[in-house]
Design brief:
The protein has one domain (about 1-180): 3-Layer(aba) Sandwich (Aminopeptidase). It is built from six helices and eight strands; from the N terminus they run βαααββαβαβαβββ. It has helices spanning about 10-20, 30-35, 45-50, 80-90, 110-125, 140-150; strands spanning about 1-5, 55-60, 65-75, 95-105, 130-135, 150-155, 165-170, 180. An eight-stranded mixed β-sheet has the order 1-2-3-4-5-7-6-8, with helices on both faces. It starts with a strand and ends with a strand.
């Protein structure tokens, strides 16, 4: 797999991966089994992410998008992002917020998600990295995926959309002695 910075030409492939992993596309049991669950942003949202966010990478095989990782630094968090804004207010030091990672279901389990994460974490080192994971429905595969990288759960909150989320972090100062932060 080749990994490149996302461009507008990658947008159709990104949208295919999103549709294939969307919450709306499967029942609860299927969601729990697959693991890469993403809230579908609009096409214009992804276009904006490509233009403005500092860490949006696609995984390519023969020029076809098979997965992506979308992340940005603390300074790029918009006030409209309820949970992320609370993280920004709570943590005064810079960090990388991992917004989405997804691999096309036909390619899950082949290590492509790991490659995308390793690429991102290498580029953002030594900044702490935070990832929000939807807790209901349970996304155990995503939780195990993050914990294999050394992520530890540090916070919980329920945004206005009503979907409770947990926040996992890696490379966070004081992580060993943290207590769970409630962001509600």
């Amino acid at each position: 797999m080749d990994i490149e910075k996302a461009t507008p030409q990658h947008l159709p492939g990104i949208l295919d991966v999103v549709r294939a992993n969307s919450f709306e596309q499967s029942d609860t049991a299927e969601r729990a089994r697959r693991g890469f669950l993403v809230s579908a942003f609009t096409e214009s949202d992804y276009r904006r992410f490509i233009t403005y966010d500092d860490h949006f990478y696609v995984g390519l095989i023969e020029d076809s998008v098979i997965g992506f990782v979308l992340a940005y630094r603390r300074a790029f968090i918009d006030r409209s992002e309820w949970l992320n804004w609370r993280l920004r207010e709570h943590f005064q030091h810079d960090f990388t917020l991992i917004k989405q990672v997804a691999v096309h279901p036909a390619r899950i389990g082949l290590g492509f998600g790991v490659e995308l994460y390793e690429h991102l974490l290498r580029l953002t080192d030594p900044l702490p990295a935070l990832a929000a994971i939807v807790l209901v429905p349970p996304n155990e595969i995503s939780i195990r995926f993050h914990e294999r990288f050394g992520f530890v759960k540090i916070a919980e909150g329920t945004p206005p959309d009503g979907m409770p989320r947990g926040v996992w972090a890696i490379r966070m100062p004081g992580l060993a002695e943290h207590s769970l932060i409630m962001l509600d």
